[in-house]
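Good morning C.,

I know you're traveling, so I'll keep this short. The sequence:
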Amino acid sequence: MHHNGIDGTSAWTSSQSGDGEPAPDANPWQDTIAAADHALEEASRIQRGVQHNLKLLQEVRSLREELRKAHAEVDRYRGMHARVVVSMRQLDDDHMGEMSRLQAASEMLLVRHRVYKLMAEHYARVALNLDPETFAAHRDRVLEHVLFQRRRGVSPDHIGYADVAFLML
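The tokens, ready to paste straight into the viewer:
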């Protein structure tokens, strides 16, 4: 008998003689046994392939689960980063507002310092008595004058005694 081998080539079984005629004393089951052996080898090879594919599928599933966890962690960190950025911007805005307030307060203190310095110069030159009501009235007038000059662009340091003396007469 004649059958094809694994690679598709013709294979002669032991039941055939060299001229293609079956041997008279050959066992008819030998061809069946050879075919069964071949089928068992193929089944075994297929089973190994299926097992390998199942193993690969399990690895793919585990990798997908790891990827899903990694994406969840990235999303969590992205959310944390967004909250930190919002907090930092809020702190920056608060800081800028506080700095503006402190700068305005500092400028006002410098203006008041200049007012008191000008008034002290005036009182030192005129040698007036320092009664509290007069001092408060003079202080308010000089402060208004210095603030007015500052709005016009004149620095308080450029305002001299002579510029405010008329306010304290």
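Safe travels,
E.
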